[in-house]
Design goal:
The structure holds 2 protein chains of 2 kinds.
Chain A lengths: L17 E6 L2 E6 L4 H6 L7 E2 L6 E2 L12 E4 L2 E5 L10 E3 L1 E2 L12
Chain B lengths: L2 E7 L3 H13 L3 E4 L28 H14 L3 E3 L2 E6 L4 E6 L3 E12 L3 E3 L12 E3 H9 L8 E5 L3 H12 L3 E7 L8 H9 L4 E3 L1 E7 L6 E6 L12 E3 L3 E4 L3 E3 L2 H6 L3 E4 L4 E4 L12 E3 L9 H18 L5 H18 L2 H19 L1
Parallel strand pairs in B: 1-2, 1-6, 2-3, 6-19, 8-15, 9-10, 9-15, 10-11
Antiparallel strand pairs in B: 4-5, 5-6, 7-16, 12-13, 13-14, 17-18
The chains are: A mainly beta, B alpha/beta.
Chain lengths: 109, 363
């Protein structure tokens, strides 16, 4: 379990509202509003994308939306920074290969 | 809204402090931040701060963040979140994107850049593997996302960030296998270093990481001893079983907007590299554009708040909200605070480096 339920300074977190997300076709539970990267870590997923030329795995690096190492395809939009994008119920997340591509119907709303 | 008096870019400790001073002086203030929540990196700093009582010493970063937000709210400061600034022109026209949808432009009388910094990377074989991350990233994961980035962690770098994050990783329930430091001496404040040492963490001074081991993620790390010329000593390699490697190797100022705005720069290694030249009021070489916090040279949240106050006071004064005497008095008080923060063996180095930046601007 990677979720920190008890903490000596920050206190305990109680169970929160759960939402369902889909990652590469499989369903997972996440806490509503948590960052995608955190939701994936809590479901034991640490590889978010593969590089364009050498197909090397990448995960999170800076965790604050600056380095873009953690980008994935989210609801059809490629290059979404998962460390600063909160999950929403029904979100469809896909491992990104290279620079990714726009999926049909991929738009923000 | 397409015109504002003082626009502050970045809502961390420096930006919020600048906004509070600007608003207190009577100026119309707008804070723009890219993130969904204001506070910058304050809300992951759960340790108590240093300095004097005036500098909120003994108060945890998270509580300082709350205090700043409360004060900003009381002063009715406008904050645009989820807003990215992409450019600034010579006439202080700012353009950017709100909510990833809507472009905007706004003309400011004064601009304060408080954009912060990014963590440095250290390159070794395997450094791009999932499981290698910035120490600050691990701190964000545990303290903001309440998620452990790994169970067995190696920290590279024994400066304050390295030892503080190591301790916080242990508080969150992870095992810190060791702290590797390339220099022969440890780099952090004694009080933080001692806490980690008392908890039984191994320190490897004069060591570095030679490679991260693993196919798809970190499975182990190889460290190696360094000689007095920082060269690896053959035969001293040691393999430690870890699933995460954190890199605490300093920060680089996020200066893109200051470059675009046309400020002159000066290279000061101790301050994180290229920093915008600025004077004692935090004004860059572009009239009416100020900097505060890590973007003006890497220091700490406590100095960032004082620099923010300096920029806020002086931007407001240049708009006529303070007469010269008031401006001088208020500036002097903040400078006394800054000088107090920049003393001692650690602070003194930063003071000297800051003096170099000021000298470059005067010269």
């Amino acid at each position: 379990m990677t979720r920190i339920l008890k903490h000596p300074i920050l206190g305990d977190i109680s169970e929160q509202k759960k939402v369902t997300i889909t990652v590469d076709g499989k369903s997972y539970l996440a806490y509503e509003g948590e960052m995608i990267a955190a939701a994936l870590f809590n479901n034991d997923i640490k590889t978010f994308r593969y590089t364009k030329h050498h197909h090397k795995p990448r995960g999170i690096y800076c965790g604050i939306g600056r380095c873009t190492d953690c980008v994935m395809i989210v609801d059809g939009i490629p290059n979404v920074r998962t460390c600063v994008t909160p999950v929403k119920d029904g979100m469809i997340i896909e491992t990104q290969h290279g620079t990714g591509e726009w999926k049909r119907g991929g738009q923000d709303e | 809204m397409n015109k504002a008096s003082i626009v502050i870019i970045g809502g961390g400790p420096a930006g919020l402090s600048a906004a509070i001073e600007g608003a207190k002086a009577g100026a119309k203030v707008l804070v723009i931040d890219e993130n969904g929540k204001p506070g910058g990196q304050l809300f992951k700093q759960i340790h108590k701060f240093f300095g004097s009582k005036e500098h909120k010493a003994g108060t945890r970063g998270i509580n300082i963040g709350d205090q700043l937000l409360e004060e900003a709210k009381r002063l009715d400061i406008e904050v645009w979140l989820n807003t990215e600034v992409c450019g600034i022109d010579k006439n202080k026209k700012i353009w950017g994107i709100r909510d990833k949808k809507q472009s905007f432009s706004i003309v400011a009388d004064k601009i304060i850049l408080a954009t912060g910094a990014i963590e440095n990377a250290v390159k070794f074989s395997g450094w791009t593997l999932p499981g290698v991350m910035g120490a600050g990233a691990a701190q964000t994961m545990i303290n903001l996302n309440r998620t452990l980035p790994g169970k067995k962690i190696l920290m590279l770098g024994s400066g304050n960030v390295g030892v503080i994050v190591s301790y916080q990783l242990m508080q969150a329930g992870a095992e810190v296998v060791g702290i590797v430091e390339a220099a022969p001496r440890l780099g952090g404040y004694g009080v933080h270093t001692a806490k980690v040492r008392r908890a039984g963490v191994n320190f490897y001074t004069s060591h570095t990481i030679s490679r991260a081991i693993g196919e798809n993620c970190v499975e182990a790390v190889e460290i190696v001893q360094l000689d007095s010329n920082w060269k690896p000593i053959e035969g001293t390699e040691k393999i430690l079983e870890v699933d995460t490697i954190c890199i605490a190797a300093g920060l680089t100022p996020l200066t893109e907007l200051a470059w675009i705005a046309g400020s002159k720069f000066v290279y000061i290694q101790e301050m994180g590299g290229h920093v915008p030249a600025h004077n004692k009021t935090m004004e860059t070489t572009v009239e009416g554009i100020y900097v505060a916090g890590d973007v003006s040279g890497i220091e700490e949240a406590s100095t960032a708040m004082e620099e923010g106050r300096l920029a806020g006071i002086n931007a407001a004064a240049s708009l006529g909200f303070y007469i010269e005497k008031e401006q001088e008095e208020r500036t002097k008080i903040v400078w006394n605070g800054l000088n107090a923060l920049r003393c001692g063996p650690f602070g003194h180095k930063r003071k000297n480096a800051k003096d170099k930046i000021l000298a470059s601007r005067e010269g």
